[in-house]
Amino acid sequence: MNEHMRASDILPASEEQGSNLTYFAFAKPCTAEAVIAPTKAVRGALPKVLAGRYRIERLLGAGGMGAVYRARDLLSEQFGEPAPYIALKILSEDLADSPDASALLYSEFALTRYLRHDNVVRVHTFEVDSDCQRAFITMELMPGLTLDNFLCERPHGLPWDELRDITLALLDALAHAHARGVLHGDVKPSNVMLSDEGIRLFDFGLGQAQEGILPGLPQLSRERFNGWTCGYAAAELLEGQPLSASADVYSVACVIYELSGGKHPFRRLPSTEARNQQLERELPAPLNLPVHVWPALRAALAFDVADRTITARQLRDAFTVTPSRLQRWMCWRKG
Ligand SMILES: Nc1ncnc2c1ncn2[C@@H]1O[C@H](COP(=O)(O)OP(=O)(O)OP(=O)(O)O)[C@@H](O)[C@H]1O
Ligand SMILES: [Mg+2]
Q: Considering only CA atoms, which residue is closest to atom 21 of ligand 1?
């Protein structure tokens, strides 16, 4: 973490407060070359049609980096496309001037495009509107509900069959990303969409390419920016360590725990604070989770990265194991 950011500057003081929101901080002195060199000094409000092609229809959601709109692609509509609808993610006005923020948006685009998986959102293009000088991504419009909204309807968690299907798809997406050398950096319920077509992991805005992957990407290291979601970020990340696949495993384990019983494992406290309070000692197995899966999920929830010895793929595999009769009998005996 650099001198301009300290976790204590950013972490909210009380539990639940802001625990679902992504926090961003950019290093103040901006020495990086502008990835998009602005040609016009004045930036305008969001036009109704971006890049002469995408008509903004309505706001779908807003977060730490910007806003996501539903839009109509007028060009494809002109060619008779029956469903010319897309989603468009654009930087917020206050970040629009920051070359770092534009680089981050481009990085989100490039990392997502690099992944080809049924359970990862598909991105189309990265563009800059020449009038308002704002960078944006176009991507598939995902129908459905994000998992945080879905969980509001299921306060006690999901029955095993449903839980298994969603978890397998989510872990498949994450394991695929890790196998391709892409780290997500912000796995949380509001970054997972659930629809009739299944699960889609999205928002790789805090993602990073592991070394050697996508070498041409503007390398915006966590020396220059930092971001996380308090209730889902692994302790080592909050303490300034670099993002790792293991940190993603902690975050996804929190999501799975929440899906299993309706509650976050550590009351959405920052993991550093949950660790100080030794909350893992009394962590109960969620009711809807079969006992034979619990050791794997528990390992994924370890605060200490050295104890978090499980990968996304291994956690996924734990959800596919059918317990032997002996294991079932032992679980039944344990109650
Ligand atoms: N492709 C899409 N189709 C439909 N809705 C979307 C799409 N992408 C994003 N959204 C909606 O917009 C919201 C914000 O998107 P996203 O998470 O990418 O933005 P963000 O600024 O990075 O948010 P945060 O920083 O809070 O994670 C999502 O939670 C979701 O509701
Ligand atoms: Mg998001």
A: 63
Nearest alpha-carbon partner for 272 in 246, 311, 295, 304: 304
Minimum mean pLDDT range among 98-102, 130-134, 314-318: 98-102
Residue 144 Cα: closest atom of ligand 1: 4
DSSP symbols for 93-146: TTTTT-HHHHHHHHHHHHHHHH---TTBPPEEEEEE-TTT--EEEEEEPPPSEE
Q: Does the CB atom of residue 139 touch ligand 1 within 6 A?
A: yes
Atom of ligand 1 nearest to the CA of 191: 17
Tell me if residue 165 is catalytic: no
Residue-range domain boundaries for the chain:
20-139, 145-334
Structure tokens at 147: 């998992």
Q: Domain 145-334: which CATH class?
A: mainly alpha
Mean pLDDT, range 260-270, rounded to an integer: 97
Whole-model pTM over 0.85? yes
Please tell us whether the domain made up of 20-139 is placed in CATH 3.30.200.20. Answer: yes
pLDDT digits (tens, 9 = 90+) for 13-55: 344 546 677 776 666 543 434 334 333 334 557 899 999 999 9
